[in-house]
């Protein structure tokens, strides 16, 4: 998050990516897992949008849906993924290959999934340059070296000829980012890119991403389970739980004024922030449930310290919980806060029932 540019100014104009009511389900022998269950969010140019939630909440499936890389037996069942004004769900495989690694690039948790052990790092970057920018020969070599320098790899002239195993974990992730940049993407999707790295290296990679974003006006979708990382990098945050976005807000507002009990629980679990009396770190008891049925109730209710009877029978819809300028929304029957509880529940009941979110 850079202080010189507010979320409001970033959000002027059309979003570069607009995910609308996306639903992706896995059809296993046993059940249908609604891994992503009707989520919507936007990303603007130059903006970093965080997706945060515990393991199993549907973050990676969201990223893979956007890239149209959902594994079998998964299917995108509903929604639109508008990119530069066109629906990615209408693209054929060839068009998608050109977009992937072209205007949209992705960085995964484990850099070795993106690097081939038998080719030098330089040759892999050059292959990306050839495929997406038609560069070859000494021009491509020069560009590969420049990219390695841009991501802060020292001695790039020499390292361009080395193999992935000759790089440390942090340097490998830098090399993967260089490969992603080789295609000059507009949108970079990062799925837990720093989770496998130690904290010092993690901080360096986050800093690098911010620098690259500023230089290139990159839009970044940043996935993590770590609220501390979100605080460092995101402009806007979407909190995911069991396939749904349960809260969405600008980062400062989310940290200062979290509304959903799940977000409050996540923030209380950050070491050094939510110390209970006696200095013990609070955690949210239990695990994310597998979303294997339609949401006719609140999926967080079984773990929620504020749950009441209706949470088991009414599905919460997104309601505004901040002022208009922040677009702060939460899906929880406790809101709108200014209504008596019964009337607030009725808002969710009627909006959910009249097809407000098309289930
Ligand atoms: P996260 O990235 O937030 O940890 P994922 O997006 O990987 O979570 O997974 C969300 C849900 O989708 C989980 O319940 C998981 O079991 C299910 N899921 C993911 N991939 C598959 C698959 N290939 N087959 C069946 N279920 C899957
Ligand atoms: Mg994941």
Can you characterise this structure?
It catalyses: Ni(2+)(out) + ATP + H2O = Ni(2+)(in) + ADP + phosphate + H(+). Pfam families: ABC_tran, oligo_HPY. It is a peripheral membrane protein. It is built from 12 helices and 12 strands. Among the domains are: 112-182, no CATH class; 263-353, no CATH class. Mean pLDDT is 92; it is low at 1-9. With 359 residues, it is α/β, with parallel strands linked by helices. A hairpin with a 2-residue loop joins strand 9 (236-241) and strand 10 (244-250). The strands form 2 sheets. The protein has an 8-stranded mixed beta sheet, with helices on both faces. The chain has a 4-stranded antiparallel beta sheet with strand order 2-1-4-5, covered by helices on one side. Helix content is 32%, strand content 20%. Bound molecules: adenosine-5'-diphosphate and magnesium ion.
């Amino acid at each position: 998050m850079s202080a010189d540019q507010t979320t409001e100014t970033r959000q002027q104009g059309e979003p570069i990516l607009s995910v609308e009511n996306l639903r992706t389900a896995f059809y296993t022998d046993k059940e249908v897992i609604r891994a992503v269950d009707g989520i919507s969010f936007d990303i603007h140019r130059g903006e970093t949008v965080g997706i945060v939630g515990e393991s199993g909440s549907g973050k990676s499936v969201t990223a893979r849906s956007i890239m149209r890389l959902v594994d079998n037996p998964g299917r995108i069942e509903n929604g639109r993924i508008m990119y530069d004004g066109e629906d990615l769900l209408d693209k054929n495989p060839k068009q998608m290959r050109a977009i992937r690694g072209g205007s949209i690039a992705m960085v995964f948790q484990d850099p070795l999934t993106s690097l081939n052990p038998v080719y030098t790092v330089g040759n892999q970057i050059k292959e990306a340059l050839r495929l997406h920018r038609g560069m070859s020969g000494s021009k491509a070599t020069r560009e590969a070296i420049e990219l390695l320098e841009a991501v802060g790899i020292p001695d790039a002239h020499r390292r361009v000829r080395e193999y992935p195993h000759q790089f440390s974990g942090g340097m490998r992730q830098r090399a993967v980012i260089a490969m992603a940049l080789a295609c000059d993407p507009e949108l970079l999707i990062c799925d837990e890119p720093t989770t496998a790295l130690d904290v010092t290296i993690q901080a360096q990679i986050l800093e690098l991403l911010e620098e690259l974003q500023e230089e290139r006006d990159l839009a970044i979708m940043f996935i993590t389970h770590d609220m501390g990382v979100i605080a460092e990098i995101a402009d806007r945050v979407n909190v995911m739980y069991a396939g749904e976005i349960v809260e969405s807000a600008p980062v400062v507002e989310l940290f200062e004024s979290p509304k959903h009990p799940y977000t409050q629980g996540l923030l209380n679990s950050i070491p050094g922030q939510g110390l209970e009396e006696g200095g013990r770190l609070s955690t949210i008891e239990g695990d994310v449930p597998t979303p294997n049925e339609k949401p006719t109730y609140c999926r967080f209710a079984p773990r929620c310290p504020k749950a009441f009877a209706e949470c088991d029978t009414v599905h919460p819809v997104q309601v505004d919980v901040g002022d208009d300028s922040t677009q702060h929304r939460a899906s929880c029957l406790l809101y709108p806060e200014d209504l008596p509880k019964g009337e607030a529940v009725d808002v969710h009941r009627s909006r959910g029932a009249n097809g407000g979110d098309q289930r």
